Amino acid sequence: MDLPQIPVIDMGSRPMSDLAKLAPEKVRLLSAAGEALTTAPVQAWMDRRSRAWLARNVTPYKTEIDDVAAASGAGGVHALNISTEWACSSIASGPRLMRTLDWPLHGMGPALTVTRHDSAVGAWWQATWPGFVGVLTGLAPGRFAASYNQPPIRVTTGVKPLDWVVERFRVERRQAIPPTHLLRQVFETARDFDQAQQLLSDTPLAIPALFTLAGADGRSVVIERLEDRYRHRASPSAIANHWPALPGHVGTWPKGWLRGVDSAGRFRDACVWAGGLDALPADFSWLQYPILNKFSRLAAMMDCVAGTFVLMGLEQAGRSAVPATQILRLDGVKSMG
């Protein structure tokens, strides 16, 4: 069967809401997938709560989310845009970054889209979905590449479902920027690795996050974030969806519940790849369980010096995921022009 190609759309300086207007059917597809996962009443309730929270939040992108919802006529747009229920694995060494993104929504693989954006500090590229205004995976040639991973649930009561509820109450009380919106700001404003690292480390957040940053100067770092604190995991490094022990931080960082499929196993295997990542792999043969699992929807490889961006959409097939798009390879993309 012929697989679809991943579209590449030059957004210039247009808002991300314009992407939803170009592909409203993809927004509605993801909305329907969210409804199938959570049920229509639950999705509607999540959307109302999300809209109310965004109304008092400091994110500069709230009007774009409103525009997406209005243009597409889809439900669940606000909930999707502040959801942090994404499981991921990220691998960084020098200027290179590889990552997978896992999410149980069906249809995300074929709906994957690459967009190019202009900014005052240079052009940048991202892997995204119409209807989503934050950034999960991006490349700024000559500056850096970066990705977002979902953090663990903090252990508070010792009962995971209750601790998930506690996390939701914490978010409700905060008005700081969501992590994926901060990552977009970084691509739009940070001139280099140092400025990107500072913004990702020091900016107050609405909820904890895990960022991976690979710089054109050969440095890379994993930034583990709480709302108002951070710690760094130096290059070469990797992260999945938990807080692995870090020397020198014993007793100073909260315990967390692992998320996603075998987060410990994904971290272990990702660290092996990070230790030998002298160049990007020639293909996606590194996608093996548990880094590849039934919820995987995206695999990406980036080099911010060479300007290389390689992507593939994935979809569940039985107990694993299989290619849902052709491989897209962009070589020599530039920071300007």
Automatic annotation (TrEMBL):
It comes from the Bacteria. This is Uncharacterized protein. It comes from Dongia rigui.
